[in-house]
Amino acid sequence: MSESSCKAADAKVLSTEPLDDLQRSIGKAADLGTRGKSSKRFRADCTERYIAGLITSFIQTRPKDSPIDGVGIVAILQKPSGPELLLQKQFRPPVDKAVIEIPAGLVDAGESAAVSAVRELREETGYHGEVSEVSPIMFNGQAMEEALAYEPDPGFCNTNLNMVHVTVDMSLPENQNLKPELEENEFIEVFSLPLKDLYAECKKLEGEGYAIDARVGTLAEGIELARRWKL
Questions:
Q1: Cβ within 8 Å of residue 159, ≥6 positions away
Q2: CA distance 59 to 102
Q3: CA 27 – CA 148 distance, rounded (Å)
Q4: 198-207 vs 214-228: helix axis angle to the nearest 10?
Q5: Rounded CA gap, 206 and 99, in Å?
Q6: How many CB atoms are located within 10 Å of the residue 229 CB?
Q7: Per DSSP, what are the bridge partners of residue 32?
């Protein structure tokens, strides 16, 4: 298990205010502060789905040469005790909680989904991995600080992504002393859970006050269904 020095529990929403510019979507701006040693404050844009309105203009976050906005990374740590899913605890202003997520990020111009996934995995967690599979394009929104819309809902947002499967060889030297490259306003804790226990652990984490990202929950549901129906 690896953990960054930035604690998701150290972040909190200090205040919210409506966004003035429709180009930034219908939503709110959250003033994100930290507890503990740091007193830095950051601004985060987010949406809250409580009104209906006509949006007359948009901000384009997808590179012109890309069919996707970003990637979600299903990173499997190959351990002697069995495969484990790499997860993150990251504070998200829209829900005012630390969220259990898989690593994810926006693609850069000229990047393929596979290249983007390897880069994002290294930057957010420090792990070096190898891509084994890229999913079809999925329209399910993304919980990423760079995206204006947090809502994981194609009825509200046209954000899309590829899920990229990455295997991490824990015996490699580069996966021993991890060096994440986090942004100043990122509050990410990295940990892993055995795949066989993911469904039960998600329930446990929710009971502890964490929010479960839809992609993590869907993976857990899939594993539980396969187990229950002996697929």
A1: 61, 69, 70, 139, 140, 141, 142, 147, 149
A2: 25
A3: 9
A4: 130
A5: 9
A6: 7
A7: 13, 42
pTM attached to this predicted model: 0.81
Give the whole-angstrom CA distance, residue 20 versus residue 8.
28
Q: Which helix (H) or strand (E) holds 134?
A: strand 130-138
DSSP label of 147: -
CA-based nearest residue to 74, from 113, 109, 46: 113
Label the pairing between strands 188-194 and 130-138: unpaired
Residue 115 burial class via C-beta count within 10 angstroms: exposed 0-12, middle 13-18, buried 19 and up: middle
* Local structure of 143: helix, strand or coil: coil
Residues 199 and 201: their CA atoms lie apart, in Å, by 5
- The rounded distance, in Å, linking the Cα atoms of 77 and 124 is 15
Beta bridge partners of 77: 84, 168
Cα R_g (the chain), whole angstroms = 18
Q: How far is CA 115 from CA 88, 143, 214, in A?
A: 20, 20, 24
* Residues 75 and 116 sit within 8 Å (Cβ to Cβ): no
Residue among 1, 6, 190 nearest 89 (CA): 190
Q: Residue 171 — pLDDT band, cuts 50, 70, 90?
A: very high
Give the model confidence (pLDDT) of 185-208 as tens digits: 777 999 999 999 999 999 999 999
